[in-house]
Amino acid sequence: MLRQALHELRLATRGRGLYEFTDQVTTWISKNKFHAGLLTLHLRHTSASLLIQENADPDVRHDLERFFTRLVPDGDPLFVHTAEGDDDMPAHVRTALTAVNLSIPVDQGRLALGTWQGIYLWEQRRSPHSRVIALHFIGE
Amino acid sequence: MLRQALHELRLATRGRGLYEFTDQVTTWISKNKFHAGLLTLHLRHTSASLLIQENADPDVRHDLERFFTRLVPDGDPLFVHTAEGDDDMPAHVRTALTAVNLSIPVDQGRLALGTWQGIYLWEQRRSPHSRVIALHFIGE
Amino acid sequence: MLRQALHELRLATRGRGLYEFTDQVTTWISKNKFHAGLLTLHLRHTSASLLIQENADPDVRHDLERFFTRLVPDGDPLFVHTAEGDDDMPAHVRTALTAVNLSIPVDQGRLALGTWQGIYLWEQRRSPHSRVIALHFIGE
Prior knowledge:
Three copies of one chain form a homotrimer.
Chain A: E1 3-12, E2 17-20, H1 22-31, E3 37-43, E4 48-54, H2 58-71, H3 88-97, E5 101-107, E6 110-111, E7 117-123, E8 130-139
Antiparallel strand pairs in A: 1-8, 2-7, 3-5, 3-8, 4-7, 5-6
């Protein structure tokens, strides 16, 4: 019997960086006994992203951060939109280069993630923020 | 009772830039009285993108455009595929760096977008085009 | 009557490059007589991507590859995570810049792809790999 459910996660960030929240998604799935279906995550912000990346070696997150900092430097004189700080427009660009929604199948009660895949909130601003993620599940 | 629906939007662009069409999506949702579920948008082209970005200050769109123009310059001698114009291959690259599909939950009859989020078609070619977006809804 | 189905595709790559597998997805759809609904693909890896791009002129894929090689060079001294080879961290970055999941409506028994759109696995590592894609369909 197909059914659906909606939920909301709120994450507090401590400034720019990758925050894993796979466990909070997994908890929602097991608590509701979702067995098979489709999970969708949508981040309700324009200066932060959702990313699926390696959750083994922390150097991977460190290097991702370094690459994006070099590619989209804070304070770049190219940008006109600077009223909210010199990291605000870079945060919008970094968000455009990544994504704000993810879709992951659920199979036998588990997210169909690979062995090394974790789900991350990527805070793109330098200061702490409260971020909201809308979750949707449809299936059995 | 779960149900689904398909629809198609056609947008005329006036060349490179971001075109908001949140209202047209919202209209389809309210006309069909979709209350809760999942909305998917798929752009049927390889040289234009779908993007969720800030719909407040127009400078954000302007700066996004400037950044991508610098990152993927038209007429770059790196490119071999130039028969359709010197902005064609950059348009494919800009599309690969962004996305052609989006998935957004619908909750209490409204898209679960954040306060500042709008849905944009990003025309990546310099000349006007007619672009088609396939819409899918599943839910109640 | 709404129903859902899960499936898994396994693709062998011969190293970095774009591998089209639209046919394998289409075959699964027609074999199961899916008429209308939503197809989701999720790649279970952190150093390879899913991409919808032009399947006409092979130069487009060639130029995409050249652009990403220049943007994220192998052996970049910026990177700390190098134990698995000098193309490993660039593969993670290239994956973050693209995507690992896609959502495509199905209409009248066909994927709602545009005329020139093909579905590709983008192997981001230089050596051959076996890659797994989780498929989910919900609809009629």
